[in-house]
Write a structure and sequence with these properties.
The chain is mainly alpha-helical. 70% of the residues lie in helices and 4% in strands. The chain has 7 helices and 2 strands. The chain has a two-stranded antiparallel ribbon. β1 and β2 form a beta hairpin. Belongs to the nicotinamide ribonucleoside (NR) uptake permease (TC 4.B.1) family. This is Nicotinamide mononucleotide transporter family protein. Its main location: membrane. It is a multi-pass membrane protein. Pfam families: NMN_transporter.
């Protein structure tokens, strides 16, 4: 994996690693496919996690562990979307807003998870270079992917909150390409949020009796 962690090029004084670039390009493609509600978002997300796991393993154990969890959630998302396929006229997953109970559960899980993971990172300093923001991104990513797997519009809000911390953290720790990609994520998140928001309203609209489906 040393070749994956070698320098690809220098951009604006930032050293871009092959692993950082390739893994995050796949991650960016996965987000774009998620916007289109394509089930292929999950295999691509799994592949992105696999590349980044290989790059981090033996070097940044905590980051490698994060990618392992991302791959597991990607498998869960694939299973969920396979079950929900065909719920709409275009054959893609149906999207909706979460209930207030689901929102409360996700916020509580994110808060408790962030504290638990941060304390783990602090207890084992080799797992993370910056325990609290790293834990926030780790747990926020999992919550966002879970919401995506369930077809919830809140998925995009969760990604936006992850971006707000992910961009400066990646630049500060030398993962410049990740930082640039998170900026692009932000634009995709806003477009995807609008698209899913409108689709959720269409899905919630009642069909009048006698009207075409």
């Amino acid at each position: 994996m040393n070749s994956l962690n070698s320098e690809a090029f220098v951009l604006f004084g930032q050293h871009i690693l092959w692993s950082d670039m390739i893994g995050n390009l796949f991650g960016l493609a996965a987000l774009a496919l998620g916007w289109r509600r394509s089930i292929w978002t999950w295999p691509v997300q799994f592949l992105a996690g696999l590349i980044l796991f290989g790059a981090f393993f033996g070097h940044l154990t905590g980051s490698a562990g994060k990618q392992a969890v991302v791959m597991l959630v990607a498998l869960y998302g694939w299973w969920q979307w396979q079950r929900g396929k065909g719920q709409t006229e275009d054959g893609h997953i149906s999207v909706r807003f979460a209930t207030w109970r689901e929102r409360g559960a996700m916020v509580a899980a994110a808060a408790a998870g962030t504290v638990a993971v941060a304390l783990l990172f602090k207890a084992y300093p080799t797992l993370s270079w910056d325990p609290w923001p790293d834990a926030y991104i780790f747990v926020g990513t999992i919550v966002a992917m879970y919401a995506q797997a369930r077809g919830m519009v809140e998925f995009w809000f969760a990604w936006l909150l992850v971006d707000l911390v992910g961009v400066p953290l990646n630049f500060a720790n030398g993962y410049a390409f990740s930082g640039f990609v998170y900026v692009i994520y932000g634009a995709l998140v806003l477009w995807g949020m609008r698209d899913w928001w409108l689709r959720s309203r269409e899905n919630a609209r009642p069909v009048l009796e006698g009207a075409p489906a």
